[in-house]
């Protein structure tokens, strides 16, 4: 059996090479191309059983992706007709649409988390040409990103096809056990990247099919979906704490190479978002008062690229992620917000931040509580705002996100 590398040794480049990589007994990782996407490829995982194949995620419904899947399955002795089930982690096009399209031609069932169904129905209506209000447009305008909101409105119906967004066959719930041959795979609800995102855990084999929840070399976007959850970053941090409390496992992500430890990467992601929250607060102190201004103040990607140098799609992701970080700071009492008569949201330091500047040798009980929180470790802060049952990570090591 293969020994998967640590994060430091994992190959950042060659994981997109076509073919089928054996990552565990009976499990192959198959990268499918995303030719017009900066992510370059999406991994689907083929699990072999006596009855046929179960695939974790389906890929994007593109001819080049279907060809790559056909060739990879042939290399391990299977064909598209051997697929029996798709277990889809979430309803983004690079995970869902090929599963939906192949169902038209083959005897295959598609299973998706219950909270992702409204997103599929939204995309299906839009693919049919119906007018559907997109919450992201309003959020971007409120953030001060009018140009980006206009881009979404202009491209609302681009390349959406009804066959790619057919309603799934099966709804999956949090904690549901799924029999895959001789395996038992458990679905766990991990909102944040999307509201109904699922991971699939094979506890006996020590495998975590992580979808876009935990990625080895990039941080998953939060807040980019047509039906928005209440606080995507708060949900994401809680979901990370949930996964960190599980026994460690091999990380089988949707983008990037398979690696030997989920916990190692979760610790890095927790530290990354703690740092981004601090940088977001610093941007407000520097005079930025809209989400767009804060996003423009920050650096993006591990190269600290300026917002204006990103392509339009990634600028949209950056602004929405900034809104998500500001929302968490508001929830923690560190930031306040008001909307002006044009609907533009302005941010300012909140009561907790003002308490920090209040003079006095010891201060009030509220000031002392604030100072205690400032002295907490990153992992303790995350745990205190995530899940009351979440285990605090042993160690947080910040590396390039």
How are the SSEs placed, and which strands pair?
Blueprint: E1 21-24, E2 27-33, E3 41-49, E4 52-56, H1 63-75, E5 83-88, H2 93-103, E6 109-113, H3 117-127, H4 135-143, H5 146-154, E7 170-172, E8 177-180, E9 183-189, E10 198-202, E11 207-211, H6 232-245, E12 250-253, H7 262-285, H8 291-297, H9 312-331, E13 335-339, E14 345-349, H10 351-356, H11 365-375, H12 378-385
Helix pairs in contact: 4-5, 4-9, 6-7, 7-9, 7-12, 8-9
- CATH topology descriptor of the largest domain: Metallo-beta-lactamase, Chain A
Number of domains: 2
State which percent range the strand residues make up.
15-25%
- The CATH architecture of the largest domain: 4-Layer Sandwich
Strand adjacency order, main sheet: 1-2-3-4-5-6-7
- Average of pLDDT: 87
Overall helicity: 25-40%
What structural class do you assign from the helix and strand content? alpha/beta
| CATH homologous superfamily placement of the largest domain | Ribonuclease Z/Hydroxyacylglutathione hydrolase-like
User: So how many helices?
Assistant: 12
Radius of gyration: 22 Å
Order of helices and strands: EEEEHEHEHHHEEEEEHEHHHEEHHH
Task: Please explain how this structure is put together.
The protein has 401 residues and is of the alpha/beta class. The chain has 2 domains: 14-132 and 160-260, Ribonuclease Z/Hydroxyacylglutathione hydrolase-like (Metallo-beta-lactamase, Chain A); 270-382, Winged helix-like DNA-binding domain superfamily/Winged helix DNA-binding domain (Arc Repressor Mutant, subunit A), CATH 1.10.10. Helix content is 36%, strand content 18%. The protein contains 12 helices and 14 strands. Strands 1-2-3-4-5-6-7 form a 7-stranded mixed β-sheet, with helices on one face. It has a 5-stranded mixed β-sheet with strand order 8-9-10-11-12, with no helix packed on it. Strands 13-14 form a two-stranded antiparallel ribbon. The longest helix has 24 residues, at 262-285. It starts with 20 loop residues before the first strand and ends in a 16-residue tail after the last helix. Mean pLDDT is 87; it is low at 356-367 and 377-401.
């Amino acid at each position: 059996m293969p020994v998967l590398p640590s994060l430091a040794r994992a190959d950042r480049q060659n994981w997109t090479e076509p073919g089928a990589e054996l990552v565990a007994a009976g499990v192959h990782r198959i990268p499918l191309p995303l030719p017009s996407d900066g992510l370059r490829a999406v991994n689907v995982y083929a699990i072999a059983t006596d009855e046929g194949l179960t695939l974790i995620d389906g890929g994007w419904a593109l001819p080049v992706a279907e060809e790559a899947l056909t060739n990879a399955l042939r290399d391990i002795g299977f064909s598209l007709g051997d697929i029996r089930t798709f277990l889809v982690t979430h309803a983004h096009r690079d995970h869902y649409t090929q599963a939906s399209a192949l169902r038209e031609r083959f005897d295959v069932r598609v299973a998706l988390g219950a909270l992702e169904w409204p997103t599929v129905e939204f995309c299906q209506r839009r693919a049919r040409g119906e007018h559907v209000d997109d919450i992201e447009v309003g959020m971007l305008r409120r953030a001060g990103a009018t140009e980006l909101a206009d881009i979404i409105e202009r491209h609302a119906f681009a390349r959406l096809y009804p066959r790619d967004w057919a309603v799934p066959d099966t709804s999956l719930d949090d904690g549901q056990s799924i029999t895959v041959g001789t395996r038992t795979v458990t679905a766990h609800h991990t909102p944040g990247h999307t509201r109904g995102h699922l991971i699939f855990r094979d506890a006996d084999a020590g495998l975590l099919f992580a979808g876009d929840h935990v990625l080895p070399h990039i941080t998953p976007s939060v807040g980019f979906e047509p039906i928005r959850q209440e606080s995507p970053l708060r949900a994401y941090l809680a979901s990370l704490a949930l996964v960190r409390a599980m026994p460690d496992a091999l990380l089988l992500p949707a983008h990037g190479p398979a690696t030997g430890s989920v916990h190692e990467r979760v610790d890095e992601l927790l530290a990354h978002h703690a740092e981004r929250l601090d940088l977001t607060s610093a941007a407000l102190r520097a005079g930025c008062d809209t989400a767009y201004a804060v996003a423009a103040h920050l650096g993006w990607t591990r190269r600290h690229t300026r917002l204006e140098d990103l392509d339009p799609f990634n600028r949209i992701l950056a602004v929405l992620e900034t809104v998500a970080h500001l929302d968490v700071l508001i929830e923690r009492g560190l930031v306040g917000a008001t909307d002006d008569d044009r609907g533009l949201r302005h941010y300012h330091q909140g009561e907790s931040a003002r308490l920090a500047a209040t003079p006095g040798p010891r201060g009030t009980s509220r000031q002392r509580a604030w100072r205690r929180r400032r002295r907490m470790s990153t992992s303790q802060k995350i745990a205190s705002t995530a899940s009351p049952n979440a285990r605090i990570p042993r160690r947080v090591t910040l590396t390039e996100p």
